[in-house]
Each structure stands twice: as C-alpha cells, then as structure tokens.
Input
Amino acid sequence: MIHNTSKALFERAQKVIPGGVNSPVRAFRAVGGEPIFIQRAIGAYLFDEDDNAYIDFINSWGPMILGHAYEPIEASIVAAVQHSTSFGAPTRKEIEMAECILSMLPNMEMVRMVNSGTEATMAAIRVARGYTGKEKIIKFEGCYHGHGDSFLIAAGSGAVTMGFPDSPGVTQGVANDTLTAPYNDLAAVESIVAANKGTIAAIILEPVVGNMGCVLPDIEFLKGLRTLCDREGIVYIWDEVMTGFRLSTSGAQGIYPVVPDLTTLGKIIGGGLPVGAYGGKKEIMQCVAPAGPVYQAGTLSGNPIAMSAGLTMLTYLKQHPEVYTRIQSTTASIVKGMEAIHQKLGVSYTINSIGSMYTLFFTSEPVTNFESAKKSDTVLFGKYFRSMLSQGIYLAPSQYESLFVSTAITEEHITQYLQAHENALNDIHT
Ligand SMILES: *Cc1c(COP(=O)(O)O)cnc(C)c1O
Output
C-alpha cells in the first residue's frame, strides 16, 4: 500500500495543527507509523487520500453504526440545510429529538442537548454538584469522560494511549475534587465514600467501559453503586456517550437492571454530527438554567442540521431493533473466528466483547479493570495494528480502545477480517 499523499498531508498538518491532528489518538503514536488521511467513506469502507480502501472497524469511534454515508441520514441533512444551518432559537426538531430520546431511555425524564460528549459530562457533574451542594466526584481508573479538567485524572482513551492519564494544565484544586477507584471494585468505592463522608456529589462511570479497551462490569458492582448512592445522597451518573444506542435501543440501561440518576450521551446520537446530551431525573434536571440556577448554555446547541441527522438515526434504530441482533451476531462471529485462530496457532489472548463492541488484548490474563488492561503487550499490538492496516483493515490505533461493528459488515468482510487476523498473528510471531 502506498501512502505518499497521506505522508505529505501529515507533514503539512504538523506545521499548523498541534501534532497534525485535532484529536490525539488519530496521530497513530501508540502504534508507530503515521496517520492515514481519509478522503471519503461509504458503507463498510474508508478510502484514504491515496485511494486505498479499508474495512472500517472504528466507525468514527462509534457513531456510524449504520455504516458510512447512510442514505436516509444524508438525505435528512441535505433537506435541513435548505432552511439555513443555524438559528440560535428554539425549534420543533429539538422537542422531537428530546421526545425521541426519552422514549428510548425510559429512566430519563428530561434532557438537554449539547455539542459533544465532553460537554455532556462536564455539565452533568456541574448539575450534580449544584443539586447536592457537594463538591467531590468519584471516577474510575481508565474510564474516559472527555477532556474536561475534572476527568483528566487517571483517564483512559487517548489520555492513556499518549501516556498522559493526568494532564498538565489541570489545577491541583480541580484534581483534589476528583477521587479515583479501580473499576469493578465496590469495596474501594465504599472506603473512599467513608473517608470523604458527606462531600461526594457524584459517581460517574462507563457502565460498560470502552476507553481502556472493552471491559465489562460486574452486575453486582453496578447495583452496589446504586445502593451506595441512594444511601449517601450521591448522584449516580452513567456515561453512555459510547454505549448509548450502541448496546441496545436504550444503551447499557437496556441490558443491566440498574437505573442511574443522570445519563450522558454523544457519538451515535448525532448520526456523525457533533452532538451530545445529558438528562435524567426531572428533580435534578430542573436545576439547569433557565429552569434552575445551574448555568449551562450553547450557541449552537440543538443545531437544526445536527438534530435532523440525530433524529433520523435514533428513529431508525428505534424502529429497527433487529440492527442490534445483526451487529451482535457479526461481532460474535468475529470473536469466535479469532478464538479458533488463536487455538490453531497456539497463542492465548484475551478478547472482551459485548453487543457490537470488542477488544483483543495482547495478554492472556482476564481484563476486568485498568490494572489488568495495562498488562497488554502494546508493542505487539502496534505490530498487529500495522499488519492489519496494510491488509486493508482499519482498527483503533491503540490497545486501549474498543472496536465497533456497523450493519455494513457482511459475511465476506468477516472472512476477510479473519484471514487478515491470522496473517497478522503469523507476521508478529515470526
Ligand atoms: C467519546 C467519549 C466521551 C467524549 O465525547 P467527545 O464527543 O469526544 O467529547 C465521553 N465519554 C465517553 C464514555 C466516551 O466514549
């Protein structure tokens, strides 16, 4: 594969954009080599600036669950554009969007639209603090909640990939208000709460983690946190920016029998446009301005183009729950195929998966939290990634990410993927 155009663009980009990219993981630093520049995409395929084709297993980090350039979504965007791109005033579409979200997430009573997942989580903890009158939050090592100051403590995703789980520029004051615990460790949370009695406003987590690679929750852990939050007057926040409308029509809440107080959304909710949302119990959401005193605003929030794309996406998913059966079965075939290959080659690697999310960890030990995820051999992962890329398979350029399957993946793609996987393992072991 020739990447001359991407190489030239990356050189040019680095002169004007920090690191040449607008979001760190895209730079491929964790896997060696240089990023490829994407020119267009359709269905399961990405095409780079040198016209190489790749089967996409990132799907814009989740949003393109129906594959790229999905016709109904594109059509809704084109239709909306004819009526101008922004008003900064209320619209009918925003109500339809809110009603649609609430109909899909029965635990949510009110919702506010924002422009990214980061905005959603930042707002959610502010509201939790305003509502409880308390200041500290608890998050989990390796969970990623966007790039808000409060969350860049022991953060996952790009932060860990780049080796900066704690970022310079976050003040000590902010850091002091963020307490961290190991994922799936209820006892650790209990003791943090006991040691900080009456000062915790919120506990926030990814109900299924994608940002240290795919890590599944212990149901008792999710339930235990609910009980703890009820007992201590803590707002329980599920960050479903990744899992929302990914794991089911009602996200992780459709799978686990636990009800959070607030939920944050993003990624799929915008159908590929920059959208986020946060919502939950009416009593808490009524604290948000102008209904209440907690300030949160956005010039472009509820943007008509974004609402059209998002509403088309959500309406489609709501009407076609078979989407989830399909992508889950695609994922199961991939995982089963990989395991058969591992057995044949006599290698042992951990694969975590749920629904249409999965991660191959280059460790033979179970991965249940950040500590165990970090046992993965990231050098080996880098080699594997480069081999897969050279065979036309586009994976997340980091060990600490989940992969996402879209409805555009066919049997033929699975076969191609598994062949590439076997070749890649043979490559890296010789
Ligand atoms: C992607 C992600 C975010 C951040 O969303 P952005 O739109 O990138 O700001 C927050 N939380 C989780 C769980 C995510 O996966």
Notes: The pocket of pyridoxal-5'-phosphate is lined by residues 116-118, 121, 144-146, 206, 210-211, 239, 241-242, 266, 276 (CB under 6 Å). Residues 322-345 form the longest helix (24 residues). Residues 38 and 48 are 4 Å apart (CA to CA).
